[in-house]
Amino acid sequence: MSYHLNNFLRSQISNNDPSYLYLLHLIKSKKGKKLTKSVFTELGDIEKLKRRAIKYVNRYRKYVDPETEIVRDGTSAVLTELKSIQVKNFRGFSSLNENDEGTLIPFTKGVNVFFAPNGGGKTSLCEVIEYSLTRDVKEASRRNTSLKNYIKNGGPHKIQCKLASDGDVPVSSYWNSCFIDRNRLQEFSLLGSKDTNVKQSDVLAILFELEEIDEIINGMVKPTSFKASEFIRTLGESNQITAVDNLIRKKELRRNEILHIRNTELKIAEVLGLTQFDSVNVESRKSYYTKLKAHLVTSTQQFESSSEELQFHKLKNYIDSIYRLNNTLEEKRNKLSVDASKVNYQKLYNAIKNLDDISALEICPACETPIDNVHKHPRDVVRDELPKLDHLHRLTSACNTIQEQIQLRVDTSASYVQTCLNEHKDSLSVQLKTILEEISDCDKRSVSEYVVSLSKIVPYLKEVEILNNSLKEKNNRVSSQASRLISLNSKIELIEEKLRLCTVHETEITASKRVLTGLNSEIVNILSDIHAYKAQISKDYIFNEFANNLEASYKKIYNELNSYKQEVEAENISGIELSTLSYYNQINKHDAPSDLVSEIKFKQANGTYRIILKMQDDKEDDAFCVLSEGHLRALGLALLLSVAKKNCHPIIIFDDVVNAIDTEHRSNIIDMFSEDSYLKDTQRIITTHDRMFWEKISNKNKKATDADTFSSHVLKSTNRGIVIQNFGVSYSQKIKDAFEVYDIRQALVYSRIWFETMVNEYCVNNEIQVTTRFTSRQLKKDNWLEISLEATYAKVAESLGENVTTFNFLKNDLINWGAQNQEHHAFDEYNYNFSHSTTSVEVQSIYEKLWVLEAQFKPTETVEKLNREKSELEKTKRRLVQILSNENFVEKARHEVVQARRDNLSKVDSGLDLLNKILEQV
Q: Which residues form the RecF/RecN/SMC N-terminal domain (predicted)?
C-alpha cells in the first residue's frame, strides 16, 4: 500500500458509519480494481459485509493512530544511508547452496555507480533496495504478477539490509519517492500521447506517489451517477404481496371446498331421509338399507322363474328338410362331376395358352398341324368349351348354397339341443338325456350321422309334450306372482340407487377433502413464506437504509479522495518550483540561452495541473507545447529530484535514468550530482548501461580519499546469478584494508599512488608550469608524451615555498622509494625481504603524512572529511559501549557475537587514535 493511501485511510478510519467503513475496506482490499464495479459485484449479505468491514477496520485501528502520519520533515527522517545489502534468491540474485549467504553489495555514503549491459542485473539491484525499504516492488503490479512469483528465484529469498547508522530499516511505502526510473521520465515525456494514453493527472500522481489514489478515483463513477435506487431491494415486499394475494385465493378455494362438502353431506342426508348430516346416523341408515336390500333379494329368490318350453313338435319336419337338402346336394355334386368330365381341359388349356390373334394362325397351337389341315379350328374349340365351364360354375355355386343351408340347420339344432340339456337336464328322462348328450357329442361335419342321431328324439316326443305341459303350468304360476316380484325388484332398485348416490357423494366428499388437505398444506406454506418475507422485508429495510447511506458515503469518500489528492499535489507543487527550475537549468546549462527557462509555474485547471514555463523572452506557454521530448524527460527528472529534495530523502536510487536523457546532457547530470547542495550530501545509487557515462562519473569522483563517498561496480549476470565486481579507486581505503591484513607492500604501493595522484591534482588545480626536455623515454603508447616525475616534484616543491616539510618527508624518506619502479609501482625483487621486514608503524607514519599533505593542498575539505569520519566513529563507539555495558547482553548473547562487538570496539578505538594523530598534525 502506498504512503498516501495508507495516510488517507489513517485519517478516515475514525468514521463509524458502516457504509463508509465498507467503502474504506473496499479501497484497501480491492485496490487496483474499479471501486464502483466492486460495489455492484460484492454487495450482498449486508450484515456479513458490515461485520467484515468493521472487523478489518478495528484490526487496522489497532496498528495505526488516526491522528498521526509519517513525518515528512527531513530533520526527523528515520532513514539513513545504506551501508550494505546482502541478498540471495531474489530476482536475478541467486545462491550456490544453502550455506551461501548471498551476494554482498557494499555502499558508500556518496555516489555508488553500477555499470551493466541490458540484462546485467541493474533493475534487480534497485528492486532489492525497493523491497527492503517498502516491502513492495511496483514493477510486479505493472506486470500484473503477484509479488511472490515476481521476486522468487529458486529457494526462499533472504535480504539483509544494513544502514550506516546500524539502526533498523524503517520499512514504509513513503520511501517510494526515493526511486527514480526511466519509465517515469518516459511517461512524463509522452504526456497526453494517444499512443500511451497517459493523462497529465496520472503523471502528477506518479510524481507525488498518488498513483493508487488516482487509480481508485478513476475507477469510481461520478457521485451523480451512483444512485442508491440501483441497489434498493423490493423483492421481499413484492413477494409478500404476491403471497398474500395467493393466500386470499387459496382461502377462497378452501371455503368453496368446505361449502361443497357441506352441500354434498346434505345431499347424502336427503337421500337417506335424514334432516341433517350426521356421520353416525348416515352409517346407521346405510347399514339399514344394505340389510333391507339383502332381505328383499332373498325374498325375490324364493319366487319361481319362467322357463322356455321345448319346441320339438316340428322336429320331424326339420329332419326332413335336412334330408331333402342333403339329397339335393348329392344330386348336384353328381351332375357337376359328370359335366366336368365332358370338358377337354387339355385342348382348352393349350388353346387359351397360345391364343393370341386366332384369325392370323397358320399352325394349330395345340398339335402344330397346319391350320388348313386341322379337324377343328382352335377358335371353335374355345367357343364350344367355354359354355361348359359356365354351367359348371353355376352348379358349384348351387352346391355351396345348399351346403350353407344344411350347416345352418345343423348348427341351430345343435345349439337348441345344448340349451335343452342346460335348462331341463333335471326334468328329462335318462334315455332322452342320453340321446341329447349323444347328439351334442356327435360329429356334426357328417350330416348323415348327425341326422341319424337327431332322429332318435322322435320316439320321445310324447315325453317332451308332457314336460312342456308342466312348464306351461309353472309359467302360469310365475305370471300370477309377477306384480309382487316387480314390486320387490323396484324396492331393491330404489335402495340400490340410494346407496349408489351415497357412494357417489361420499367419493366427491373424499376428493374434496383431499383437495382441502392440499389447500391447507399450501396455506401453511404460504403463511410460512409470508413470515419469511416479513423477515426479508426487515433485512431489505436495513439493506436499503445501508444503500441510501452508501450513496452519501460514496459521495463523501469521492470528495475526500479528490480533496486529499489535490491537497497533496498543491503541497508538493508549491515548494518545488524553484528547485525544479534549478535542476532543469543545471541539466540544460549548455543549451542556447533562448532555450533556458526563467520560471516554472503549475496552473490548476479542471482538477488537474498544467506546467507553465516562462522563457527568457518572458513568453509563457505550456511545457508540453514548447518542449521537445528530450527536454520533457529532463523536466521530469527535475520534478522528481525536487520531490526527493522536498521530502529530504537521504537516499536516491536512479535506475538507468541517464538512458532517458540524451548524451549531450549526461555530463551536466554528472556535474549536478557532484555540485548541487542537496544531491552532493545525499547517498546516490546509480545504475547505467552507458559505458561513457559510467567512465565520466567514475573519473569525476576518482580521488584518493573517496572510499566513503564513491564506489564503482560492474554487474554481470551469470547462470549462478548476478556477480558484482568492485572498481573502487579510494587509495586511503585500500591502504586501510592492507593494514588490516598486514600487507605492508600493498600499503606502500597505494601510498605511492596516492602521493602521485595528489601531486598531479595540485599541479592541475594550481596551473603549475613545467619546462622540460622530452626524450624517447617520455614517448609513450599512442603518441602520448609523459612529463618526468622528478621535474614535476621540483616544481611542486618550488610552489610550496617554505611549507615543504611534509612533502619532502614523503618524497625523500618514503620507504623503498628508490627500490620501487616508478612506472609500474612494483617492488624490486632484490628488496622483497626488505619490504616485509619493515614494521607497519613506519608505514602508518607515511599514511598520516599523506593525510597531512592532503590537508595542506585542500585544507577545508580534508578537515571536514576527517572530522565527519571522526564523528561517525565516535557515534559508533558510543553505541558499542552502550551494548557492551549491558550485562544482560554480555551474559545471554553468544560468545562469538559479544567478541565481535568487542573486536569492533577495539577497531573503532584504533581508528579514532589514528584520526586524532592525523588531526593533530593538520
A: 82-699
**Beta carbons of 689 and 115 less than 8 angstroms apart:** yes
- For 103, 201, 362, 829, the CA distances from 187, given in Å and listed in that order, are 33, 12, 120, 61
| Farthest CA pair distance, the chain | 194
To which residue does cell 561513457 refer?
692
Judgement on whether residues 444 and 502 belong to the same structural domain of the protein? no
Which residue among 692, 709, 729 closes a domain? Answer: 729
Residue 342 lies in a domain: no
| Residue 699 CA from chain centroid, whole number | 54
Residues 259 and 165 in one domain: no
Does residue 307 surpass a pLDDT of 70? no
- Secondary structure element (H or E) that encloses residue 502, with its range: helix 482-574
- 356-409 pLDDT tens trace: 555 566 676 656 677 667 667 666 666 666 665 666 777 788 888 888 887 787
Beta strands 620-622 and 608-615, pairing class:
antiparallel
Could you tell me if residue 351 is inside a domain?
no
Domain that residue 892 falls in: 734-921
Looking at the structure, do residues 62 and 89 belong to the same domain, yes or no?
no
Phi-psi region of 154 (alpha: psi -120 to 50; beta: other; left: phi over 0): left
- Tell whether 341 is covered by a domain: no
| Closest by CA position to 574, among listed 646, 651, 674, 517 | 646
**Does residue 127 sit within a domain?**
yes
Axis-axis angle for helices 482-574, 235-271 (nearest 10): 170
Residue 360 DSSP one-character state = G
**Most confident stretch, 251-260, 491-500, 553-562:** 251-260
Q: How far apart are CA 66 and CA 9, in angstroms?
A: 8
Do 848 and 709 share a structural domain?
Answer: no
Give the chain's domain count: 5
CATH number of residue 710's parent domain? 3.40.50.300
Query: 738: burial class by Cβ within 10 Å (0-12, 13-18, 19+)?
Result: buried
Contacts of 912 (CB under 8 A, 6+ apart): 870, 873, 874, 877
Q: Is pLDDT larger for residue 379 or for residue 467?
A: 467
**Amino acid identity at 762:** Y
Q: Do the beta carbons of residue 96 and residue 55 sit within 8 Å?
A: no
Q: What pTM was computed for the model?
A: 0.52
Q: Same domain, yes or no, for 422 and 531?
A: no
| Helix/strand/coil for 820 | strand
Q: How far apart (Å, rounded) are the C-alpha atoms in residues 222 and 607?
A: 14
The DSSP annotation for 46-93 comes to: HHHHHHHHHHHHHHHHHH--TT------GGG-----EEEEEEESBTTB
* 756 in the same domain as 607: no
Rounded to 5 degrees, what are φ and ψ at 833?
A: -70, -35
DSSP, res 797: H
> Do 502 and 443 share a domain, yes or no?
no
